[in-house]
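pasting for ref
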Amino acid sequence: MNTTAEHKSRCRRLMANTDDLHEDLHVLVDRFGPFKAVENYGPWVEAQYIFQQQLLGLYEDKQVAELLPDAAHRSRLQAAAKDLAFLGHAVPTVDAVPYEKDLPLIEALAWLFVSEGSTLGAAKLIKYAEALGLSANEGASHLAAESPAARMTSWKQFTAVIDGLQLSDAEEEQMLAAAKAAFRNFRTVLEQCFEKPLAA
């Protein structure tokens, strides 16, 4: 796939066009209250593990790696597994992925866009986790980063890849649809882990 310096605002457009779904997740998380008590926190980590397991194949995808060489190292699957072990929770079983096999590259990047974007919000969430007595080494490693600067640098590197793609109008819509699907999928995972389905 060709890349270009055009469409530098693509990530901003993706963020703007999925803002309603992002806000819905904020409302959902607030209702479940995973950072209000340790007993609520476990299902949150389970949801993170499941989502990262679902995305593992995309993080390890060869086409993704061509554009983002450190993609495989960005997965937070092992960190979530470590946190579950610390909390004494079993690792959830993930039988299938919520997208088609051999997902087109632009759709794979859109799903990863949702995952990578969540690392920015994690900067605030880890402070909430610390208030519960957890830390980057004990129960909240999936929220951790080497430093605030490293977190932002990682995000900028990822968005540079997205913004550098040369896409047709149809492919722009394809990428947006995939990003929306990723947000909706994570909402479903959250509801299942907390076993409290809510109306959309």
